[in-house]
Design brief:
This protein is of the alpha+beta class. The chain is about 35% helix and about 15% strand. It has helices spanning about 15, 20-25, 35-45, 60-65, 65-75, 125-140, 160-165, 175-180, 225-240, 280-285, 320-355; strands at about 105-115, 150-155, 195, 200-205, 210-220, 245, 250, 265-270, 290-295, 305-310. The chain starts with 12 loop residues before the first helix and ends with a helix. The relative contact order is 0.15. The structure holds adenosine-5'-diphosphate (ADP) and D-arginine (DAR). Adenosine-5'-diphosphate (ADP) binds near residues 106, 264, 267 and 293.
């Protein structure tokens, strides 16, 4: 492989950090699973509009290709090679904020997890992926109480049911081109599926981007309820399924953006006025380290002034800090939205006064 010719408009962290010198240093290296630099960067080469552009094929990738991954990790999370990740799942430490009524439509908190001592999705074999599906779905089927539910393999699921679950924000989409070119969609739909409880407030995706996406979600803005359900579930699953974990990087994920807590705490929130003031909107999201996604998740657009707002950082902060950052930022967004509403109301009253006198 020769040094790739990145297009001039490439803005990914891969383009930014893979110098020709670094490429020459890493191009002939591979992990014990045979995962190569070429495989790690293929998604970013095929998708020049990538934000990041790299995926790991196993936990070892973060060591073998550390000279590249560490630059990307520091750029995205502000986490340096000498930093160490710490966890805090004590939901009593959350300074809960009740969001004003009428803005937050729903709350979802998810973590990515991968099975210890197994390759990640980009390097796993079909047999290993099927083994994970069997072991994890068996463990999930032992869950009781509020978490009790059923596992549904994608292989046996009709397109109509899949579309309905995707539309309702419960199931992952297929055909993601970033995952495709990372080798994460190989053998699709074999080994993929979804577990959910009877109310669909607790769900687990199997073998999408990560081997598990453990999800707690519900209508409204009761963040503590959503978070505590997730923490209880995570701990119960981990008693049966050991997760890939690093003292330095926390929970190991396919994409470096999901290392550490691998947690994304999001709300669907109505901000029709702020959506007309994107400069002000983005100033607030930058201040609170928030990410703006569309109403159907990553790489989608907002609809009717509804946005998916979540914490951007996942590594080098604890789970409590990630959720707190989201809550504090969402509170600031609601305040800004209310002020814009008030200004609009005053202006329309002034206009009416002017017109009637
Ligand atoms: P991930 O959260 O796993 O990184 P996405 O951003 O693609 O993946 O979101 C996955 C699905 O979850 C999408 O259908 C998205 O609309 C839905 N979703 C995300 N946040 C919320 C939320 N707060 N309420 C309801 N659905 C949500
Ligand atoms: N779209 C890929 C991944 C960015 C982070 N999102 C994940 N991991 N789902 C990119 O490189 O832009």
């Amino acid at each position: 492989m020769t040094y790739p010719e990145f297009p001039p408009n490439c803005t990914s962290l891969l383009c930014k950090h893979l110098s020709s010198e670094l490429f020459e240093m890493l191009k002939n290296k591979s992990t014990a699973n045979g995962f190569t630099l070429e495989q790690a960067i293929n998604s970013g080469l095929e998708n020049s509009d990538s934000e990041i552009g790299v995926y790991a094929g196993d936990a070892e990738s973060y060591d073998i290709f550390a000279e590249l991954f560490d630059k990307i990790i520091e750029d995205y999370h502000g986490f340096s090679h000498n930093d160490r990740h710490h966890s805090n799942l004590n939901f009593n430490d959350l300074k809960v904020k009740d969001f004003d009524e009428g803005y937050v439509l729903s709350t979802r908190i998810r973590v990515g997890r991968n099975v210890k001592n197994m390759p990640l999705g980009s390097a796993i074999s079909k047999a290993q992926r099927n083994e994970i599906e069997t072991k994890v779905s068996t463990a999930l089927n032992t869950l009781e109480g509020e978490l009790e539910g059923e596992y549904h393999s994608l292989l046996g699921m009709s397109k109509e049911i899949q579309e309905r679950l995707i539309e309702a924000h419960f199931l992952f989409k297929d055909g993601d081109r970033f995952l495709e070119h990372a080798g994460l969609n190989r053998d699709w739909p074999h080994g993929r599926g979804i577990y959910h409880n009877h109310d669909k407030t607790f769900l687990v995706w199997l073998n999408e981007e990560d081997q598990l996406r453990i999800i707690s979600m519900q209508q409204g803005g009761e963040v503590l309820e959503v978070f505590s359900r997730l923490v209880i579930a995570m701990k119960q699953i981990e008693t049966q399924i050991p997760f890939a974990y690093s003292e330095r990087l926390g929970y190991i994920s396919s994409c470096p953006t999901n290392l550490g807590t691998a947690m994304r705490a999001s709300v669907h929130i109505k901000l029709p006025n702020l959506s007309q003031n994107m400069e002000q909107f983005k100033a607030i999201t930058q201040k609170y380290f928030l990410q703006i996604r569309g109403v159907d998740g990553e790489h989608t657009q907002s609809k009717e002034g509804i946005f998916d707002i979540s914490n951007y950082r996942r590594l080098g902060i604890t789970e409590i800090e990630a959720v707190q950052e989201m809550m504090d930022g969402v509170t600031a967004l609601i305040e800004a939205e209310k002020n814009l509403e008030l200004m609009k109301h005053v202006e329309s009253n002034l206009d009416n006064d002017y017109l009637t006198h």
